[in-house]
Write a structure and sequence with these properties.
The structure is a homodimer of 208-residue chains.
Chain A: H1 5-25, H2 36-43, H3 57-82, H4 89-102, H5 104-113, H6 119-139, H7 148-171, H8 177-207
Helix pairs in contact in A: 1-2, 1-3, 3-6, 4-8, 5-7, 6-7, 7-8
Chain A binds a DNA duplex (33 and 33 nucleotides) through helix 1 and helix 2.
Chain lengths: 208, 208
DNA sequence: TGTACATCAGTGAACGCGCGTTCACTGATGTAC
DNA sequence: TGTACATCAGTGAACGCGCGTTCACTGATGTAC
């Protein structure tokens, strides 16, 4: 039997470690600056007990990425069901930035570690973004005559751009609504440009 | 008299500190993971002497950004003079990725710290990118009827995309030429798409 | 030009601190009979 | 069901280490006269 009391308690502590790590990094500290003792302390266990869950801090970092992957995919699936994709670009992005704002720590973590000091973690995050891009490609409404290759290319660009703009969004002072608005509008313009570029470039080539 | 022997020696040590920092961070370590003692040791001075140059590691970080800003601007100016901008997109980007490869530490630093843990440094790097985008906007060859606002918008996107792709480029195994090639081609396609999007979107609006 | 004093980059020792890791342990929970 | 033993998440103490920062100092260089 695996689902016994002891096992469940272990999972709970593991999850606490993951969330403590996210909390302690906050908006300003990288994974590499986080200490094992800090995380253990915040989680209410003794430093030595950390090793019952992870071999070292890198393994914990990968677990954080894995945990957020799960969350992100769930959100994505729900957004698809709720029909958010079918809304106009402007409305979709408004929902997106609202979500970014409600999950500041998560997005700061992603933005920071996607280019951070640890290569394994960088690649894990990039892989996750690539997954999201593939999902998005499947859901995107594009003229039927646009080939799938183009759609995948464009959704990669969209995901990359959106993450980048989320990073800028999070650096704006919390109370500065005007600046938040500006970033939202800028993102809409960027994505629109990407859509137009895709469609026009393809149409041009097909006419030839 | 400012340009005395003592002052020049101080400048030299300061410059050594900056380069030691870049070297020690290498491809994998963030500014926040770098220790004052490491940098001092690598530079051949005693830890206490560090304080003759910088108040703390953050100030050193800002100096690194400032130093690379100077370098980057010089390169940009030379590229303009040499007419590299007038070459086809493909050739320009090939030169760009060659430059990225020759300055791996610099670009890894920029890529890492542009979203890194320290907000002052993030903003300093972003400001520098924005400067580069403005320069680029002035040099870019676009149809005369495209308004300056559009050109600035598009050069911002280009700079942002190019930096992002440089980050991916640096994570590819050094000997994997095929993959490097792929990233180059992908970047060309991305930028082409951005150009087409800009021109077509604007033309469309003007016809109405 | 020569002398006497000021400046200041770099020294070397010392400090208290939090770090990662090890170890034998405890005691609640699980398992075999 | 009851008992005897096994498992194992978490404990608490200890270790040696590198850290940032302070301080009084040194001695080469600069400046005023």
């Amino acid at each position: 039997m695996k689902l016994n009391q002891r096992y469940l308690q272990k999972l709970k502590t593991r999850s606490t470690l993951i969330h403590s790590a996210l909390k302690l990094m906050g908006e300003e500290k990288g994974l590499g600056e986080l200490s094992l003792r800090e995380v253990a302390g915040e989680s209410g266990i003794v430093p030595a007990a950390f090793y019952r869950h992870f071999k070292n801090m890198e393994e914990l970092g990968l677990a954080v990425v894995d945990d957020m992957s799960g969350k992100l995919r769930t959100i994505l699936r729900e957004a698809r069901k709720s029909g958010a994709y079918r809304a106009a670009l402007k409305e979709s992005l408004h929902l997106y930035f609202e979500y970014v704002n409600k999950n500041r720590l998560l997005f700061r973590f992603l933005s920071r570690e996607a280019t951070g000091g640890n290569k394994r973690i960088r690649l894990a995050i990039r892989k996750e973004m690539s997954f999201i891009a593939t999902e998005l490609a499947g859901d995107m409404r594009m003229p039927k005559w646009i080939p799938m290759g183009d759609i995948e290319f464009v959704s990669e660009m969209i995901v990359s751009n959106s993450f980048h703009m989320a990073g800028e969004y999070l650096d704006v002072d919390l109370s500065d609504h005007r600046e938040h608005q500006k970033i939202e509008i800028k993102t809409v313009k960027q994505l629109r440009l990407i859509f137009v570029g895709t469609i026009r470039a393809r149409r041009k080539r097909m006419k030839k």
